[in-house]
Amino acid sequence: xxxxxxxxxxxTAVPHVRVAVIGSGFGGLGAGVRxxxxxxxxxxxxxxxxxxxxxxxxxxxxxxxxxxxxxxYSFSFAPNPQxxxxxxxxxxxxxxxxxxxxxxxxxxxxxxxxxVLEARxxxxxxxxxxxxxxxxxxxxxxxxxxxxxxxxxxxxxPGLADFPGRVFHSSRWDHDYDLxxxxxxxxxxxxxxxxxxxAIQPKVGRLTVFQRxxxxxxxxxxxxxxxxxxxxxxxxxxxxxxxxxTLFALRELQVDAFVRxxxxxxxxxxxxxxxxxxxxxDPALRARLTPDYRIGCxxxxxxxxxxxxxxxxxxxxxxxxxxxxxxxxxxxxDGSEHEVDAIVFGTxxxxxxxxxxxxxxxxxxxxxxEEWKGGMEALRGSTVRGFPNLFFVIGPNTGLGNSSMILxxxxxxxxxxxxxxxxASVGATAMQPTARAQRHWNLELQxxxxxxxxxxGGCSSWYLDDQGRNTxxxxxxxxxxxxxxxxxxxxxxxxxxxxxxxxxxxxx
Length: 508
Hints:
Strand content: 15-25%
Number of helices: 14
CATH topology of the largest domain: FAD/NAD(P)-binding domain
């Protein structure tokens, strides 16, 4: 008898969706809500972690809170009358995002543990193929909502690998490690460090802070929201809208000083100088903590406890970066040596070199990282030539220095939905910006950037890329960005129509 031939198992069909969203922070969840409201329900939200929340899930360090007022740091379509404080903490913001996922029916669309390893544009099929740790999907369009504050950046410090104590980044806090009585080094004095330092200083034995460049710090006008206010905003929603509108208007009035007339910030800088004087009695330490650049050039921090923590008896401020590690000894760039048990890096994220760019491949297989080798740029912060049907939420030059990023996110979501519906109305399968439109947008943007405080203020910040260009912030008001992204101008785009038949697709 002839041997029975082995049957080859039938290949598993790859699920297909109209839209694949990467990330489930504010941008990803907002995209899900707007897609559903536009009648687009054939989508998935691919999340690498096991819960929603994005940066507000990852950053759980002591003292973590938002520096934008709570009633402005929420979706316009999902007001929260129950914010506990005027500047709410990380647990409350994360809980808010969980409620958004539940309230707007996003759970069935979420795929956890689905880190995107590769997204590749298939030209013949005019669609994206996404390879994730949870399997493959194909999609007509991809929304990258991974965000710029997603992947921690730890500097390459000689000897760090041999440090015998604990080492972790602020966004990957080790909650199992008790800092009480320990000798702790905090590297960096940015927004995260300014919250961590006051939170841990009272409990650690010794705190050593490595400061390359001091930050300007303003008082934090934080308070508990009263029960009456919560009741009023819940019972009479227009009162909450009025509060949000007032907060919005106040921040819009500040824009001109940042983007056109930095000299107007002198008064604000005087407030910051008085804040240092009140918090730090030692003139030598005060001098070390006083920046030599104009306020606003780097991110302005808000804290009432930062300066007292730095002036505490158990705190040493090293006015230099961390140069090397020798065993349990950390050595500053000024040559000072300090014995420590733990090192906490508050050194920010890969913002101008986002790792997701290495995983996205567009027309001809070219990666987004290659496309952005000379610096990130997109049309209206949302689309990039050579990457059809790829839409960004918090894309290049959409960051803010003084207001709520949720305002920018909602503007980009309007643009996304209008792009998808416009394509459908004209019978196109995909779209990509013309080279002329993308170039014109960015040349004009960089010209406006040249007179901002971020360019003229005399500092070097994480807003700038390796070429010294600011590819992170928006040089205008949130209102002007909303106008720029209200509608898609099809004249700025090349429309692509599918010409070849596509293999059978399975709905996800």
